[in-house]
TrEMBL record:
Entry annotated with the keyword Protein biosynthesis: no
UniProt organism field: Streptomyces rutgersensis
Keywords on record: Methyltransferase, Transferase
Gene3D superfamilies, alphabetized: Vaccinia Virus protein VP39
Domain Methyltransferase type: 115-207
This protein's record includes keyword Transferase: yes
Coiled-coil parts of chain: none
Pfam families referenced in this protein's UniProt entry, alphabetically: Methyltransf_11
Molecular function in Gene Ontology: methyltransferase activity
Protein's UniProt name: Methyltransferase domain-containing protein
Positions of region (Disordered): 1-68
Superkingdom, taxonomy of origin: Bacteria
GO biological process: methylation
InterPro entries in the cross-refs: Methyltransf_11 (IPR013216), Methyltransf_Superfamily (IPR050508), SAM-dependent_MTases_sf (IPR029063)
Length: 308
């Protein structure tokens, strides 16, 4: 599960927490780290500037690859306990595929070819493998996939852009993405078309993203995050850029209607739209996600799509 919306003030991915007493993470330490020479204060790069501006497909892809490669270690260190090694979590609310069964009923995944897009360290793919599926974990970030190797398992790993999937037509029975790729691409319909292409007839694609309504509110977990601060209809991307104006992080906003039109425009059929409620057991905050906000309005949207 990738970084969540970083509109000012910028949120991080969910802080480490257990799953409400369900299972402890088995993620092993230490996180991969090469020796880093000491840096003086003069060497420290300035904080990127946060702004709203257009960002092309190429710029968005380049920024995402660089950001995830540069932040993968910290990400896995902070959030490995929440994600586990082989747990399939759809979002900060803690909705688990073990419970939700959005990909199919219990026992139905055995023997199916499944593509996970934006897999990170392939936690979801390991859960799928334990269900008897044959998953492939794809991510844009080389460093994230190194963490998949660190954790281990026999899941095939592929480094590629979700907008140009390196697979033949009709290669997979299912595809899934938990906060992967789609929030960060300038043309999400291109990704959806690629997913449709590699799915077999009758296949299903399930993906989760930040709920679009969240873009109207500040990313604050407390009371300040309950007041509308921006137009929900402003699709201008959130961009963090360096001193030369080069994007180092990009996230794109789509309204709920935009997401539905993207699904339909890619030739997929929308089967369900799931908006997980915040459970009582989850008392911790995850960036802008929190029990306070989660009990009042949704933070995650899960789209269940089919290829007819």
């Amino acid at each position: 599960m990738p970084e969540a919306t970083r509109r000012v003030p910028a949120p991080a991915l969910p802080p480490e927490r257990d799953s409400g007493g369900n299972t402890e993470s088995t993620t092993r330490e230490p996180i991969i780290q090469e020796p880093v020479p000491p840096r003086s204060a003069a060497d420290e790069a300035p904080e990127p500037e946060a702004t709203r501006r257009t960002a092309s497909r190429a710029e968005s892809s380049r920024a995402s690859r660089g950001w995830w490669d540069g932040n993968a270690d910290e990400y896995q260190r902070e959030h490995g306990a929440f994600l586990g090694d082989d747990r399939f979590v759809w979002g900060p609310e803690g909705l688990d595929e073990e419970e939700a069964r959005l990909l199919g009923p219990e026992g139905s995944l055995k023997g199916l070819d499944v593509l996970e897009i934006g897999a990170g360290a392939a936690q979801c793919s390991r859960w799928l493998a334990a269900e008897g599926a044959r998953p492939v974990a794809l991510d844009l970030s080389h460093r994230q996939l190194q963490h998949a190797l660190r954790i281990g398992g026999a899941v095939p790993l592929v480094e590629a852009d979700a907008g140009a999937l390196p697979f033949a037509d009709a290669s997979f029975d299912l595809a899934c993405s938990a906060y992967g790729a789609l929030p960060f691409v300038a043309e999400p319909v291109e990704v959806l078309r690629e997913v449709r292409r590699v799915l077999r007839p009758g296949g299903r694609f399930v993906f989760s993203v930040t709920h679009p309504i969240r873009w109207a509110f500040p990313d604050e977990p407390g009371p300040a995050g309950l007041t509308v601060a921006a137009s929900y209809f402003d699709r201008t991307p959130y961009v963090e850029q360096d001193e030369q104006g080069r994007a180092v992080y990009v996230e794109h906003h789509r309204t709920l209607g935009d997401r539905v039109r993207d699904v339909v425009g890619a030739g997929l059929r929308l089967v369900d739209l799931v908006e997980p409620e915040w459970p009582e057991w989850n008392t911790q905050e995850w960036g802008g996600w929190s029990p306070l906000r989660g009990h009042l309005f949704p933070g995650t949207a899960i789209f269940v799509c089919a290829r007819d």
